[in-house]
Each structure stands twice: as structure tokens, then as C-alpha cells.
Design goal:
heterotrimer; A mainly alpha; B mainly alpha; C mainly alpha; A: mainly alpha; two-stranded antiparallel sheet; about 10% strand; B: Helix Hairpins; 4 helices; about 70% helix; cell membrane (chain B); Na(+)/H(+) antiporter subunit C (chain B); CPA3_antiporter_subunitC (chain B)
């Protein structure tokens, strides 16, 4: 399956960057505004799907040069490890905590362990969705 | 509004059930998707609608909509996406391997 | 954990070790490894044994499920010690014997000895447990291991059949026993046998006490192959002979006897208990010995003889339990004699029957047949075997100078006492038992003389017989020596085992008579029971000489079809057929049918609850106002959905679902759920892409060609589901039974540092759900990958 539509391809080149940026924003803003790992992940995935529709699978692979299955697995692992981490510190499984730091340039910033967990969710969603899409499109009957 | 939405979800349930009972695999998958849509509408509606602002503390509102159904539905949306994808691929692999997507033909021999 | 616990666990450890070592120790016979277990355990248990005094009862406990009173508690008294010694002692001899019986090269010895160890551990656990639930678990484990061992040669149809039959019948009894145990628990509030015995008379008045007794007796009777449940034992003879010698004569079938002995202090005072056991025992004794005459296969003959002997032991325990009955208080010491006889015969039976089974195994091994019509005249070829067989069979026939004689005499004494001290119609019992003993005498003669004397037909035997190797003869020889030793020195077991066991079985009696002692001697003087034995020998010899003349006509008289064996087979076939037809009637293999069941059930249950409890309520007063654009979106949703229903094009259907999805995300915007709206929007985009990707590969959708009837019934179910769920939703909306818990989560900024409550719910408050959710998502992804990438390599090549 290969589309060759110059308009679409040109638009996609710009759009993918916009969508990707937005998705990262959504991921990190999720703690206080609409967003989070699920939505961020799905938006990233949709950007890559758009890339795939406009160009081809090869392009998608070049943009994200990782094995999507491993990405998804790594996501699950990160989420589980944040849970295990709280066990190590002697609190119930998956307890989250947060603290405020003064970071250069950013000023007062909140850092929460929940964000690491959400990052795992994000990776899992991106990895799984793209595993599904790429598996289907690579299928040679 | 709530009664209206519950009735709409009821209509969706009816159509979804009819599609699920069909013998065509694609219709069954579509039926399942509709079924989850209907469930989501039902879940959010029975809790009462448009009472208070979105559950974002940044809004500094007097009252917020109940966030629990929303969290449940968010989980459900992602799960039903995974389910739909799995069933869809199952259906199309079945068709490639066995040459039919008719559930009636896919059932085994009676002596099994 | 005490050493007793470890003793029970040791065989289970070897269940794992033996198969692991098997690969690396092919050079030696696996039996040598397995032999270490029973020998070590025998040595362990023998240290509790002392000829001159009884073992001091030991109780050790280890909490297992303390919340419902289940403890892994063990109790070692002389009764359990006796069984532990039998299990480990005969176990050692059987394992030793099996080393020579089973070929190292042809048999799968790792399985054989693993199963055997499993059985040994289970059996030890059964007889040492004080907790009824633990006892039950081990009890069922003996049934399971017995199943595995009978089916050891699973390639043979008869083995599989026999294993299944034994399993069905003993497990049925096991379940019934479990029911009895649970009733006992309900009555007494404890699972501990000690504590139930201590509760004593306070339980007997309960209306469920007698039913519990019968349920437990059913378990004991099935395990000990009592009439009419004896039918599994002859078929269990398909097991390798060492197994028959061990499980189906010396140990497992005695578990029922053990249970009866163990529970006698609880139930013994009930007349129902005593008479049920006496009558069932006597019937089993007679029927077993009579059927044994008919057999040509020596092993089948021994199986019926085992049934018969078990009946004898059971009936003795039944007579003995009368000692606990208040109505017979003045004769209690007389009846106690029956308990002594029962336990003593149990020991003797294990000794001579174990030996006889091994001898039959040797005959089979050396000549290639167990058929008495083919055997004969090999006394000169196998003189040692002949001697050992003769000792075993004479002991079984109750002849001196073998230990069976003593217990047989005591059996007659007990029955005569029974007649003298209870109702007059009981007089028939000694007569029946005496006739059964004549049969016993005759089949014992058959075992010895039909196999070893007579004319020798070399052509009928598969191989030329010669004496068995020493190792194979060692085990039966030891048992035979024991049979003689117990005749001359019964004192070996009197003070150590018999007296304390009997005292433990009837504690109420010995509270009154603390100075009681029993006397077990070979010579009683010239009494009635001796006359009975002499008459048995004379009549038995006479009948045996003429057996060919009367055997045929007598067995001709009996109905062939109407026996328990055919009844079992028929009922099994009927049961299987009925089950199949019932299953077939609803397991049609059609998704539509299955889903109809589910939906139909949903409709019935929800509607019945809704209207049955008056829970339905329609309350529109709280409704929020509805705007015109909301109405439009709603109508759009319905139109799109209805469109899917009638669309015959794949593309259009997919688009329809897409439209519904996007309208749903619009609702989420209106209903102030921004997270949901965003997610739904993106998911919808990706799903539609997915549908379109698969769309290339899917076949064209055909127009609905199903019958009107099919469509109509589906439509009715669909409308039913829609209506039910709508009514349910309306009722749920109409009622507000308690305040929402959402208030707590509005503190999310303080609790989780998050201003987005939904997100904080997902990643913080309910993070466990989310973690599992991404696991599900990941599994689905891997599943899809597997569907596509890893497929049958074979088909395309």
C-alpha cells in the first residue's frame, strides 16, 4: 500500500511535528490539565499513523528507529517498577509521591513519581498501537 | 437531558445486540464497538449531566462533575480499542486461513 | 513442623526427586533409590514400637488454614503406629520385590516409583492425621495415586477401565465422607478427631448425627471394597502385581477399616453403626469367598478373597463396637474381644495376603500365566515357591501353625458371643460365617494345589518354569516367617499394639475396666470354635475333591446378566449417553446461540430483579435542560447507528461506526469531560484507520440472507436487551441511595499534587487498575503480532 500524494505528504511533514509537539505537551500537562499518558500516547500514535498513510512504513521506522514491541514492553516495565519502587521504600505497592523543586529556567516545578508512571503508560500505548498497525500492514498474504 | 441520553444509549444497545447476534464477523466487531459506546454514554449519564465544571482544579469552580465515571470510561475506551483491534485481526486472519467470515460455517463438526 | 510431619513429607519429596534423578541413574534400577524411603520411614516408626509397652500418644500440630479450624495436626497412637508400620514395612518389601519384578529396560520406572511414593505419603498422611479435612485430602490422594498405579500400563484397555472404575467408586465414597465430615464439623464445631471424641455424648442427640455416620460409612465401605461397592477391586487387579500386593491387599483397602476403627469412639455406641457394619461385613465375607471359587485367574481369586477378608475384619469391628453400647454394658468386655480379633486379623491378613500376591506374581513371572487351568505340576520345579504359597494360603484358611488360625478362632468366638448376648436371630450369623469359611478353605486349597500339583503341561505355559531369583523370594519369605512367628509368639503385638489400640477404640469401656488385659494364644482348649475349624477342614476337603462336579452346576444357577458388574457398566454407558445428549442440545457451536443464552439470562435476571423488588423508577424532575444542538447530535447518533444496521457495504458500515464514535466524543465535550473527549477522538481516528487497513483483506459483506425467523428472534433479543438496559439505567439515575464519593478526590491537589482529578485517579489513586490496563493493552498488541507473524509454517510449504 503506497500513497503518493504530494499535497498530503507536504502537509504531513508539517503536521506530524505539530502533533508530536502537542502530544508531548499533553503528556506532561496531564497532571494539571486535560491529558496524560493515554491521550499523549494515542496522539503520538495517530501522528505516526498519519505519517504511515502519507508516506509508507519505511518512513515511520526511520522516524522512530526502535522495535515497537520493545517500546511497549519497556513502558509496562517502567510502570511496574514505579510500583515496586514504592515497595522498596516500605509503602504500599504503587504509592505515588510528589515534591516541588526550584529548577533553573523553569522556576518552581513539581516533580511527581506519577509522571514516571504516566510515561510508562505513554510508551506502552505508543508501542502497542504501532505494533498493531505495523503488523497488519506488513502482513503479506 | 439525562433521560434522553439513556434512551439514546438504549437504542444503541439494541442495534449493537442485533449486530452481535449476526453471523458476519465484521458486523459482530462493529456491534461490539457500538456496545461499548452505548455503555460509556450510559455510565456518564446516570450520574447526572452538566452539574458543575470539568474536573480540573485549575477551573476554581464551585462544584465539579463526578470524576470517577470519567476515569472508568477512560480505562474502558482504551481496553475496548485493544479488544476491537484483536477481534478485527482475528477475524481477518480467520478469513485468510479458512476462507469464510461466516460464524455458521466456522462452527465445528457436531461430533466434537 | 515436627519429625512426624517430615516423615509424611519425605515420600512427597521423592515424588519429585525420582523423576529428576531417573535420567542420570539409568544404570541402576530406580527401585533401589525408592527403597530408601520406606526403609528409612520404617526405621523411624519402629523406634516408637516396643514389645512390652504401648506407644505414648503424640500430638503435633502445624497451622494450615487456622481461620476455619484446619490444622495440619498429626496424632500417633498405637492404631496409627500399626498402620504406619504396615505401610512402611510392607512398602519396603514390595519395593524390594518390584525391583526384580519390573524390568529396568522396558518399564517407565520413574513414573512407577513416583506414583508409588505419592501413594505412600498419602497413605501415611491419612492414618496419621488428626484433622478430618487433612485426613480427607490425603484420603483422596490415595484414590488418585491408586488410579495412576492401576492405569500404569495405560496402553491396555482393561487397565484404563479398571483405573476409572476404582476412581469413580472410591471418589464417590470420598465425597460422601467429606459431607459426613462437614456435618460432624457443624455439629461439634471442630475438625479435630480428638476433640470430637472428647465432646462425646453431647453430639449424639443432634438430628444430623446419624446421617453423618452413614455418609462416613459409605466412604469407608467404598474404600474397603465392601458389598455392594466391591466391584472395583477385581478390576483393579490390572495393576502390576507389586501394586496389587501393596495397595489392593495390604494398605489402601484397609483405609476403610482404619476409618471405622478410628471413629468407633464417636459412633460405636449407636446400634445403627454396629449392625450396619456387621451385616455389610458378613455379606461381603460370604459373597467374596463364594465368588472366589468361580475364578480361574489366580489374581482375580485373590481379589475376591481380599474382599471377603475385609468383610470379615469389618464385621469384627462391628461386633466389637457393641461394647460401647449402653444396652450391652454388662457384656462390654466380651465384645471387646472382637475388636482384638479384628485388629489382629488385620495384621495377619496384610502379612499373608501380601505374601500370596507376591507369590502369584512370581508364578506369573516364571510361567507366563496365572490361569489355574494351565498351571499345575510345577511343585518339583519351584519347591520354595510352593512352600511359601502354602504358608500364606494355610494362614488364610485359618490352619495351624500359622497366625491366621488364631484370628480365625477369635472370629468364631466373637460371633458365638454375639449370638449369646444379643437377639436370637443373630444366631444365623455364625452359621453364615462358618459356611463362608468353608468357601475360604476351598479357595485356599485351589491356590496351592491347582497351581503346584496335578499334571504338568509344558505346552500350556509360555516359558519353562524355574525357581524365582532369591531377591524376588525374599519379601514373601519374610512375610511367611512373620506369619509363623505370630502364631507362636502372638505376644509380639499384644501389649504393644492390640491392647492399646482396643483401649483407644473403646475409651468409655476401659474407664470402667482399667485393669483389662487380653490373652491371645494358639490353644484355647477343646472348644466349640475348634470343632468348627475341624468341621471346616473335613467338609472343605470333601468339597474340594469333588469341585469339578458341583462347581459348574452351582454357578449355572446364578443369573449372569443381573449382577453388579454389568449394572455398573450399563449405568456408566447410560450416564455418558445422557450427558452427551444434554450437552449437545445446547452446546451447538453457534456463537449466536451462546450469546442468546447470555443475553436472555441478562434480560430475565435484570427485569425480574427490577420489577420483583420494585426498584424501577422514572424521575425526570432532576433532568438538566436540553439544547437544540444536543438534540441534533443525538439524532445523528441514532441515524448513524440505524444506517449500520441496514448497510450492506463494508465501507459504509465502518463509516457509520466512526460517526457514532465522533458524536460520542462530542457528548464528552458537552458533558465536561475533556479527557474523555480527547481520548475518544484520537481512538476513533486510530480505530477507523485500523478498520480500513483490515478492510482490504476482509470479504465483501453479503446482504442478510438469513431466514426471517432467525432475524426475528435476534430482533426480539436485541430489543429486550436495549429495553432492559434502558430501564436499568433510568432506575439507577432515578435513585440516589448514597452520596457520591467524588468529594474525596477533589482534594487531589493536596493528596497527589495534581489539578486534573481524572488523571490523578488514573495514575495515583487507582494506579493499580491502570497498570493492569496497560498490561491488557500490551497483551492485545502481542496477540495481534502473534496472529500475523507466527503462523503455521507447515501449511504454506
Amino acid at each position: 500500500m503506497k500513497f503518493t500524494d504530494v499535497y498530503l505528504q507536504t502537509a504531513t511533514k508539517i503536521l506530524v511535528f505539530l502533533i508530536m509537539t502537542f502530544s508531548i505537551y499533553v503528556l506532561f500537562a496531564g497532571h494539571h490539565n486535560p491529558g496524560g499518558g493515554f491521550i499523549g500516547g494515542l496522539i503520538t500514535a495517530s501522528a505516526l499513523v498519519l505519517l504511515y498513510v502519507a508516506f509508507d512504513l519505511q518512513t515511520v521506522r526511520e522516524v522512530i528507529p526502535v522495535d515497537f514491541k520493545k517500546l511497549a514492553a519497556a513502558g509496562v516495565l517502567i510502570s511496574v517498577l514505579t510500583g515496586v519502587g514504592s515497595l522498596v521504600l516500605g509503602v504500599p505497592f504503587l504509592s505515588q509521591t510528589f515534591r516541588y523543586f526550584d529548577l533553573p529556567f523553569l522556576g518552581k516545578t513539581e516533580l511527581a513519581t506519577a509522571l514516571i508512571f504516566d510515561l510508562g503508560v505513554y510508551m506502552c500505548v505508543v508501542g502497542t498501537t504501532l505494533t498493531i498497525i505495523t503488523s497488519i500492514s506488513e502482513d503479506d498474504i | 437531558m439525562e433521560t434522553f441520553m439513556i434512551i439514546i444509549s438504549g437504542i444503541l444497545f439494541t442495534i449493537a445486540t442485533y449486530l452481535i447476534l449476526n453471523k458476519n464477523f465484521l458486523r459482530i466487531v462493529l456491534g461490539l464497538t457500538l456496545f461499548s459506546h452505548a455503555t460509556h454514554i450510559m455510565l456518564i449519564s446516570i450520574n447526572g449531566l452538566k452539574r458543575g465544571s470539568a474536573p480540573l482544579l485549575g477551573e476554581h469552580a464551585e462544584s465539579y462533575t463526578d470524576p470517577i465515571p470519567q476515569a472508568l470510561i477512560l480505562t474502558s475506551i482504551v481496553i475496548s480499542f485493544a479488544l476491537t483491534a484483536l477481534l478485527l485481526v482475528l477475524g481477518y486472519r480467520t478469513y485468510i486461513e479458512l476462507g469464510t467470515d461466516n460464524m455458521k460455517k466456522l462452527r465445528g463438526e457436531s461430533h466434537e | 513442623m515436627s519429625s512426624l510431619h517430615l516423615a509424611i513429607l519425605l515420600p512427597f519429596v521423592f515424588v519429585v526427586i525420582i523423576p529428576l534423578l531417573y535420567k542420570y541413574t539409568r544404570a541402576i534400577h530406580t527401585g533401589w533409590i525408592a527403597l530408601s524411603v520406606p526403609v528409612a520411614l520404617f526405621v523411624y516408626f519402629i523406634q516408637y514400637f516396643s514389645i512390652h509397652e504401648a506407644v505414648e500418644p503424640i500430638t503435633v500440630s502445624f497451622p494450615w488454614i487456622p481461620s476455619i479450624g484446619i490444622h495440619f495436626s498429626l496424632y500417633l497412637d498405637s492404631l496409627s503406629l500399626l498402620f504406619a508400620l504396615l505401610i512402611t514395612g510392607i512398602g519396603s518389601l514390595v519395593v524390594l520385590y518390584s525391583i526384580f519384578y519390573l524390568s529396568k529396560d522396558r518399564e517407565r520406572l520413574n513414573f512407577f516409583y513416583a506414583y508409588l511414593m505419592l501413594f505412600m505419603g498419602a497413605m501415611l498422611g491419612s492414618v496419621l492425621s488428626d484433622n478430618l479435612m487433612v485426613l480427607y485430602s490425603f484420603w483422596e490422594l490415595t484414590s488418585v495415586s491408586s488410579f495412576l498405579l492401576i492405569a500404569y500400563w495405560y496402553q491396555r484397555k482393561r487397565s484404563r477401565y479398571g483405573a476409572q472404575k476404582a476412581m469413580y467408586i472410591t471418589m464417590m465414597g470420598g465425597f460422601s465422607m467429606l459431607l459426613g465430615f462437614i456435618i460432624l464439623y457443624v455439629i461439634s464445631g471442630t475438625f479435630s478427631i480428638r476433640e470430637i471424641i472428647a465432646a462425646g455424648d453431647s453430639l449424639t442427640s443432634h438430628s444430623l448425627f446419624i446421617p453423618a455416620m452413614f455418609f462416613i460409612l459409605l466412604g469407608a465401605f467404598t474404600k474397603s471394597a465392601q458389598f455392594p461397592f466391591h466391584i472395583w477391586l477385581p478390576d483393579a487387579m490390572e495393576a502390576p502385581t507389586p501394586i496389587s500386593a501393596y495397595l489392593h491387599s495390604a494398605t489402601m483397602v484397609k483405609a476403610g477399616v482404619y476409618l471405622v476403627a478410628r471413629l468407633t469412639p464417636i459412633f460405636g455406641a449407636q446400634l445403627e453403626w454396629s449392625w450396619t457394619i456387621i451385616i455389610v461385613g458378613i455379606i461381603t465375607l460370604t459373597m467374596g469367598s463364594f465368588n472366589a471359587l468361580k475364578q480361574y485367574d489366580l489374581k482375580a481369586l485373590l481379589a475376591f478373597s481380599t474382599i471377603s477378608q475385609l468383610g470379615l475384619i469389618m464385621s469384627l469391628l462391628g461386633v466389637g463396637s457393641l461394647a460401647l453400647n449402653k444396652g450391652y454394658a454388662e457384656h462390654s468386655l466380651v465384645f471387646v474381644g472382637a475388636l482384638v480379633a479384628g485388629i489382629f486379623h488385620l495384621i495377619n491378613h496384610s502379612v499373608f495376603k501380601g505374601s500370596l500376591f507376591m507369590m502369584v506374581g512370581i508364578l506369573d513371572h516364571e510361567t507366563g500365566t496365572r490361569d489355574i487351568r494351565k498351571l499345575g505340576g510345577i511343585i518339583h520345579l519351584m519347591p520354595i515357591s510352593f512352600t511359601l504359597t502354602m504358608i500364606g494360603a494355610f494362614s488364610m484358611a485359618g490352619l495351624p501353625p500359622f497366625s491366621g488360625f488364631i484370628s480365625k478362632e477369635m472370629f468364631f468366638i466373637s460371633l458365638i458371643e454375639l449370638t449369646e448376648n444379643t437377639s436370637s436371630w443373630a444366631a444365623i450369623i455364625p452359621v453364615i460365617a462358618w459356611i463362608a469359611s468353608i468357601f475360604t478353605f476351598i479357595y485356599c486349597m485351589i491356590i496351592i494345589f491347582k497351581s503346584f500339583t496335578g499334571t504338568y503341561h509344558a505346552d500350556r505355559l509360555e516359558r519353562k518354569p524355574h525357581e524365582a531369583p532369591f531377591g524376588m523370594l525374599a519379601s514373601p519369605a519374610i512375610l511367611s516367617l512373620l506369619a509363623i512367628a505370630l502364631f507362636f509368639f502372638p505376644g509380639l503385638v499384644v501389649t504393644s499394639i492390640l491392647e492399646p489400640t482396643v483401649k483407644g477404640m473403646a475409651p468409655q469401656v476401659f474407664a470402667v475396666h482399667p485393669d483389662w488385659h487380653t490373652h491371645v494364644t494358639a490353644w484355647h482348649g477343646f472348644s466349640l470354635e475348634l470343632v468348627m475349624t475341624i468341621a471346616i477342614v473335613i467338609i472343605g476337603t470333601f468339597l474340594y475333591r469333588r469341585i469339578e462336579k458341583w462347581k459348574g452346576p452351582v454357578f449355572e444357577l446364578l443369573p449372569k446378566r443381573l449382577n453388579l458388574f454389568t449394572l455398573y457398566d450399563k449405568s456408566l454407558i447410560t450416564m455418558e449417553k445422557t450427558a452427551t445428549s444434554i450437552t449437545k442440545s445446547y452446546m451447538t457451536g453457534s456463537t449466536t446461540h451462546y450469546l442468546s443464552y447470555i443475553f436472555g439470562f441478562l434480560i430475565v435476571i435484570v427485569l425480574a430483579t427490577l420489577f420483583g423488588t420494585g426498584a424501577f423508577r422514572l424521575d425526570t424532575s432532576q433532568d438538566s435542560p436540553i439544547e437544540w444542538y444536543e438534540l441534533m447530535i443525538g439524532i445523528a447518533t441514532v441515524i448513524a447507528a440505524v444506517f449500520i444496521l441496514f448497510s450492506t457495504s463494508r465501507l459504509m458500515s465502518i463509516m457509520g461506526v466512526g460517526v457514532v464514535g465522533f458524536t460520542v466524543s462530542l457528548y464528552f465535550v458537552i458533558f465536561r469531560a475533556p479527557d474523555l473527549a480527547l481520548t475518544q477522538l484520537v481512538v476513533e481516528t486510530i480505530s477507523t484507520t485500523l478498520f480500513l487497513l483490515c478492510f482490504y483483506f476482509l470479504p465483501k459483506m453479503k446482504a442478510n440472507v438469513e431466514s426471517i425467523r432467525f432475524k426475528l428472534s435476534n430482533a426480539i433479543i436485541a430489543i429486550g436487551v436495549g429495553l432492559t438496559l434502558t430501564l436499568m439505567g433510568l432506575s439507577a439515575y432515578g435513585y440516589r441511595l448514597f452520596e457520591p464519593i467524588a468529594e474525596y478526590f477533589t482534594n487531589s491537589y493536596e493528596l497527589a499534587g495534581a489539578k486534573n482529578i481524572v488523571n490523578s485517579l488514573l495514575v495515583d489513586f487507582r494506579a493499580f487498575d491502570t497498570m493492569l490496563e496497560i498490561v491488557v493493552l500490551f497483551s492485545a498488541g502481542i496477540g495481534i503480532y502473534t496472529f500475523i507473524k507466527l503462523r503455521y509454517a507447515g501449511r504454506n510449504e
